[in-house]
Amino acid sequence: MDKKYVDFAVLKTGELLSIDSPTGYTERAAEWVKAEFDSLGFSARITNKGGVVIDLGGECDDDGLLIEAHIDTIGAMVAEVKGNGRLRLTNLGGSRAHNLEAECARIYTRGGKVYEGTLQLCNASIHVNKDYNDIKRSYDTTELVIDEDVKCADDTRKLGIMAGDIVAFDPKFKVTESGYIKSRYLDDKLSVGILLAYAKYLRDENVTLKRHTYMHLTVYEEVGHGGAASVPVGITEAIAVDMGCIGDGLGCTEKTVAICAKDARGPYSYKVTSKLIEAAKNENADFAVDVYSNYSSDVDTTLAAGYDIRHGLIGPGVYASHGYERSHISAVESTLKVLKGYSEL
Length: 345
Description:
Elements (H helix, E strand, L loop, with lengths): L2 H15 L9 H13 L3 E4 L5 E6 L2 E11 L4 E7 L5 E6 L11 E5 L5 E8 L20 E5 L6 H6 L7 E4 L4 E2 L4 E4 L2 H19 L6 E8 L16 E7 L2 E2 L11 E7 L2 E2 L2 H13 L4 E5 L6 H7 L5 E9 L6 E4 H15 L2
């Protein structure tokens, strides 16, 4: 796989990361994704649910392949405008207050205005709060301090801020000279960038796929029902391209592509997983096969919705998942290699 496709994947990842898209607030990001695939010459449409389905073409219509990734990220929502004018939040997906303390955020109001703020521990000055070190961080012990002159709830409401407003935290995207990719929400915007690069490879090389292949970039994966709909007719297999987990007892690193054999919802298709391993070997991809006990994916949801398909899961290794995450361009390259190799089996 030519390095230009790795570079393209990282470029597009950064562009998508600049568009806030906590689960439930993904319209702008989905429109951007659709436009990107349109510009590559592929037919893309936005579903009623808000995801993006892309037709990559292919020869065999009755043995189709669906590749899934997700546009939505974790985030937060305003749960209460407090008496002091600050905001109590509630999580969207698996976000955690202790991982977001002192981080900058944007508040998206229903009226279209956007305000900035910072998530802080209540009574955040360590020189004043003698219990600062001992307080368990949660969305009940922290508050979003708005960067406006507000002193009470009425001041905040006059800005148009209310319960139900979306809160997105700054991703802080960065690529180091050594090739590390650092940002919040690499889960799963890095995989979206990879799929855009894969589509560009197909276009540039004028590849006709053996099987009719579609992509579904979902928008509710972080709350468990992203892949539950919009499966095109003729699909027999679905592969999720999501993050590979890194931690104790696992083989995946930031430089490998992960192939998941089992997650919290059970084993992936033995046939599909075996083919993914074969593809990785054929393409000399750096890979690891792992079991993830605290994980589920879009294709789990697709099966749970009743679709009669085989399923698999791959993804670039991502450290510190749901936190300030880190991967590497080597993992991007290996993931692209597996996608290429799988399409040729």
